[in-house]
Amino acid sequence: MIGIAAAWIIVLLLGGGVALDRVLVNAVTRNFDNQLEYALTAMIASAEIDPTGEVFFNRPLGDQRFLEPNSGLYWQISGTGHDDFTSRSLWDRTLEQVTPHDDLETHLYDSDQFPGEGLRMVERTVILPDSEVKWTFQVAQSRESLDAQVSEIRSILINSFLLLALGLIGMAALQTLYGLWPLRKIRKAISEMRNGQKKRVSEPMPNEVTPMVDELNELLDHNEKQAEEARRHAGNLAHALKTPLTVIMNSATAKAEDLADTVIRESGVMRRQVDHHLARARAVGRRGHAHSRSRVWPSLQAVERAVGRLYKHVRIDIDGDKDAAVSVERQDLDEMIGNLVENAAKYGGGSVFVTVEPGDEFVELLIEDDGMGIPAEERQRIFDRGARLDTGKPGTGLGLAIVRDVAEIYQGTVSLEESEDLGGLMVRLCLPKSQVTS
Predict the structure, then answer these.
(1) In angstroms, rounded to a whole number, what is the distance separating the alpha carbons of residues 418 and 213?
(2) Which residue windows are transmembrane per the record (predicted)?
């Protein structure tokens, strides 16, 4: 930032300095030229023709430098067929017309006809009364004073603009360092958090960095929640595995005759618990993906094909919005829909109907079957891990628990209702609508 500011300051000051230099130099040169033109006008006003046809002045010119040899200020009057009429200051030299012309306009230009002495010249061609000769009036002055003024102006400009540039760059540097100073505080606070001295950035910050600090604190909250969930999941898994392990250990210690059956049974329980907690862990790990987006219809079609192969006697119909998308990872969406549709096919009477209804913020999936349904008083308990109402069919009792946990991780909900069309159970799965366009 300091480098960019310094570059812009230098560029702007260079541009401004060049422009100002041209303005001041032109002003000084114009003032110098005006003095020459004034002397030329005075010459023309004083010039007359004598009886012999030669030009002369009816009154002397006011500037005494015309009388001092090599004074740096000269005049000369030239006419075809006549001797040059020159000022005493020219001494034994004459002025030449560097740019020949034949008009009555005033001409201003620089000349180097005198070695070591640059001249600024003004000349004009005039026809005097009582004469048909075109007389060329010339006034020349050494550029030494003009160049000295220009050099002084440029020296002042360069020194002033250098000081101005240093001052502006210094101010830009101070402003940048002052503006970015709060970031040093944030860095220090993060270092203190890493060392365990602080948990949050609590110092007051300027308005410009307050949103970043708030986002950082929210990120820390999010990470703490995820860490707490991970610890809770680990504790729950450990607790869930403790009982089966105890049963196996007791049977092995007692050398029970049904040890093999006990190991197989309790191992199945442990596997189901591990699958359940792994599903939750995967969903929690993917929850932070703000751009998660999955289309519902392809997931429904994939689940329909898979469940249809397992339960060939079941008819599965899907209807609704084919373009609906939710802010859920595809794998988690497939797992939720798969559990619900498989339950409907397993416990229903042979018909499963799935409807996709998009809303403003959520997409609802209605999974209906024509089975016996679930009594209202049992609909909350059925979400508990391992809870089963129909023990005559194979299952783990974790399907609805997994669906509920994964849906809640994505800020969704799942509820059980009665199907008005099929007469069995209707599961209402609400998932957040994706705001990301494909």
Answers:
(1) 48
(2) 161-181
pLDDT of residue 391: 42
Determine the Cα–Cα distance for residues 98 and 75; give it in Å rounded to an integer.
15
Provide φ and ψ at 4, rounded to 5°.
Answer: -65, -45
pTM of the model: 0.49
User: How far apart are the C-alpha atoms of 324 and 194, rounded to whole Å?
Assistant: 43
Report which of 112, 120, 107, 113 is spatially closest to residue 94, judged by C-alpha positions: 113
Weakest mean pLDDT among 20-24, 293-297, 327-331: 327-331
Type of residue numbered 368:
E
Cα 42 to chain centroid distance, Å, stands at 68
* pLDDT-derived band at 282, boundaries 50, 70, 90: low
Residue 417 backbone phi and psi in degrees, to 5 = -140, 180
- Give first-to-last CA distance, the chain, whole Å: 37
DSSP string, 281-308: HHHHHHTT-TT--EEHHHHHHHHHHHHH
CA distances from 316 to 63, 297, 322, 323 (A): 117, 14, 16, 20
Helix, strand, coil percent values for the chain (each to nearest 5): 50, 20, 30
